[in-house]
Design brief:
Layout lengths: L4 H11 L3 H10 L4 H18 L7 E8 L5 E9 L2 H4 L2 H17 L11 H14 L5 H19 L5 E2 L2 E5 H12 L4 E9 L2
Antiparallel strand pairs: 1-2, 2-5, 3-4
Helix pairs in contact: 1-2, 2-3, 3-8, 6-7
Length: about 190
């Protein structure tokens, strides 16, 4: 299939990734835009892992207040330079993540933030739930329930509220690829009247 500049432009508009990366992904996908988006997503996680050890020196604090003012989400999204932190797309990303925090009420940024006592408390609850499961499968059932529980509570693993096909972590990986810098959520807070 012939890859036209219109196809490249369409993929770039959807993803915000550079023209050359879009062209390479389309070539690899045989011109299929949906496959090219998946290829770009794979490349974004590889790009993010390469930049993981870079220092963060700039960022933005963004807040979202839900209609009616009863719930607010606040997030600090850090990056390497002021150039990126002042970019309107970066600021919109921070606002969208703050909206996600308000909507989904995460408790931890990553699994590294989960304390041992939190996992022990969850394990105790799930142990009671799997008493009717055969003993040979009980450990696997408990681990599956803990994994599911953590995916609900860990911000980077939650499905993004505006696009459930992406996790918040994948959204950040895409931003790293797009902006060419390390991007990280350093802090978040959810405030609620109730």
């Amino acid at each position: 299939m012939v890859i036209t500049t219109d196809t490249i432009k369409e993929l770039r508009d959807m993803t915000g990734v550079s023209v050359m990366q879009c062209k390479k992904a389309l070539e690899e996908a045989g011109g299929d835009i949906e496959k090219a988006k998946i290829i770009l997503r794979k490349h974004s996680s590889a790009t993010a892992s390469k930049k993981a050890d870079r220092a963060l020196g700039a960022g933005i604090a963004a807040a979202y207040t839900h209609a009616g003012g009863s719930v607010a989400g606040v997030v600090v999204l850090a990056c390497e330079t002021d150039f990126v932190s002042k970019n309107t797309e970066f600021q919109k990303l921070a606002y969208d993540i703050a909206m996600h925090v308000a909507a989904m009420s995460p408790q931890f940024i990553s699994r590294d933030d989960v304390k041992g006592e939190d996992i022990k408390a969850a394990r105790d609850v799930f142990l009671k739930e799997v008493l009717n499961v055969p003993e040979s499968s009980r450990t696997k059932a408990i681990e599956g329930k803990i994994d599911s529980y953590l995916r609900e509570k860990v911000l980077l693993e939650q499905p993004f509220v505006k696009d459930a096909t992406l996790s918040v972590g994948e959204l950040l990986d895409g931003a790293v690829q797009k902006f060419g810098e390390k991007i990280q959520i350093t802090r978040f807070e959810r405030l609620s009247v109730k």
